[in-house]
Amino acid sequence: MILVGLTGGIGSGKSTVSAALAERGAVVVDADAIVRDVQQPGSPVLAKLAERFGAQVIAADGSLDRAALAAVAFSDPEALTALNGIVHPAVAAEMNRRVAAEVTTDHVVVMDIPLLTENPREGLQGKIVVDVPVETQVERLVRYRGFDEADARARIARQATREQRLAGADFVVDNGGEVARLAPQIERLWAWLTSLPQLPADYDFTGRKDGVGKGDQAPA
Length: 220
Description:
By secondary structure, the chain is of the alpha/beta class.
């Protein structure tokens, strides 16, 4: 197994890069997707969220009302800490389970973690950063995800700075331009990934920092 991390600020297009790597055969362990998985109706996590934040965070169909939860959790630091205390352990356990299932393979495993810079994970062989200018992040959040500009800038400000992410990067993907510029970068990235040494089959990453770092994105 080859094990790396992938990160980028909100609106950077990180999911586009991870999807391109998956097309080339990478196993992507996506923290955002796992957050949604562990919050499915009937899950222990959803029950704990309802107990802590009230029935109003549960929609009529029994699913998590993500907007209602965000409204409660992101307005109060104590509530956000409680939210992370419920969600993070479940997400970290599931991410570790999925990585552990790949240890004896020769796959490239990409841990897609939004706030990897803020919450580093040990045991990775490299860190990929998807980089865009802040103004591009704002534009994308407003145009494609329905944020108002003030909210977009507030979300960006709660994450690591662009400079902080780049400082810890082993490979940078510039996703601030035209889509056509991305393909050759992905090819170079894939060549780099497949050149990394295989980890031993008995590699043990358990007990390491979880690095989930969902922060303000926990209800995603």
